[in-house]
Amino acid sequence: MSDPTLPTRAGFVALIGEPNAGKSTLTNRLVGAKVSIVTHKVQTTRARIRGVAMEGQAQIVLVDTPGLFRPRRRLDRAMVAAAWGGAADADIVVLLVEAHRGLTPGVEAILERLGDLRKGTPVALAINKIDRVKAESLLALTEALNARHEFERTFMISAERGHGCDALKAWLGESLPEGPWLYPEDQIADLPLRMLAAETTREKLTLRLHQELPYELTVETESWQERDDGSARIDQIVYVARDGHKGIVLGRKGETIKAVSTAARAELEEFLGRRVHLFLQVKVRPNWLEEAERYSEMGLDFKDGA
After folding, report:
1. Is 85 annotated as contributing to ligand binding?
2. Is 235 within any annotated ligand binding site?
3. According to the UniProt record, where is the region G2 (predicted)?
4. Is 264 annotated as a binding residue?
5. Is 53 within 8 Å of 169 (Cβ atoms)?
6. Would you say 21 is a known binding-site residue?
7. Closest CA to 160 of 30, 17, 13
8. Where are the domain boundaries for CATH 3.40.50.300 in the chain?
9. Which of 42, 196, 244, 269 has its CA 20 to 30 A from that of 151?
10. Residue 89 annotated as lining a ligand binding site
11. Is 3 annotated as a binding residue?
């Protein structure tokens, strides 16, 4: 509950970690609404999607960064640069580590770079998916990680089930700097609606196609028209890298793209609270991974991938 006698606090919290560590799930848990796409494929978060969580008089702006991994392609490098950029600009950084995977080479690499953050930036450790391991191994992992870096606090959480998330949220709220709120209280994400709509469709494609789906796929909202009856017409393009991929996305007699469109439309209607007319087109662009325009649509910097 907010207390008007207390000062307001606000600031940015960057969630960092390996792909699939649970950053998107934790963002959605803390915000209390679905703002970041969650799938069982790694590297699904591309842009720095922000969710706004309220905790008493504090406004916590969550920067949900792409997972940190060893980049091979331009898109990978741009995503990793966005993740470290989000951490560098944040008031607080939270490192998420999966309890059952422990101290992987990827986590080791992240720990090595934590020292590069701005001096004085508090870094908390959140060990996620604690329901998957025994208490003894949790204790050993906590000690091993804290021996590598001086964390402000360590939290044991399950982002999916909510365990420990209230304690983390309370600590974030009280640790942010005093100052006016950065967003209106009822605004949960600063991602432009066009990009949010594209992310929603991309999530549905990822869920529908599982392993068939190559990473060389992106969705852009080409146009957004407000209609007189209060509904919105949204036209989107699904870009794929090869002709063969187009057939996979369309499906037999177009059934895959129809199912994706139906699922995305339903979620957008729920989010926007009004009717949505969603139209999808699939286009082959062999070199979209090398086009600067595609990166800016995803909120990434093309130059970061060089």
Report:
1. no
2. no
3. 43-47
4. no
5. yes
6. yes
7. 30
8. 9-175
9. 42
10. no
11. no
**Amino acid sitting at position 14:** A
d(CA 27, CA 19) in angstroms, rounded, equals 14
Is this prediction's pTM over 0.85? no
Q: How far apart are CA 276 and CA 221, in angstroms?
A: 13
Where does the chain hold its CATH 3.30.300.20 domain(s)? 193-305
Identity at 196, one-letter amino acid code: L
How far apart CA 291 and CA 219 sit, in angstroms, is 14
Residue 10 known to bind ligand? no
In terms of CATH architecture, what is 193-305? 2-Layer Sandwich (3.30)
The answer to whether the annotation marks 68 as part of a ligand binding site is: yes
> Is the domain defined by 9-175 classed in CATH 3.40.1000.10?
no
Paired tokens of 76: 């990978």
DSSP type of residue 49: E
Q: Is 119 annotated as a binding residue?
A: no
19 is in an annotated binding site: yes
The answer to whether the annotation marks 128 as part of a ligand binding site is yes
Give the distance, in angstroms, between the CA of residue 23 and the centroid of all CA atoms in the same chain.
Answer: 6
Q: Is 188 annotated as a binding residue?
A: no
Q: Is 66 annotated as a binding residue?
A: yes
189 annotated to bind ligand: no
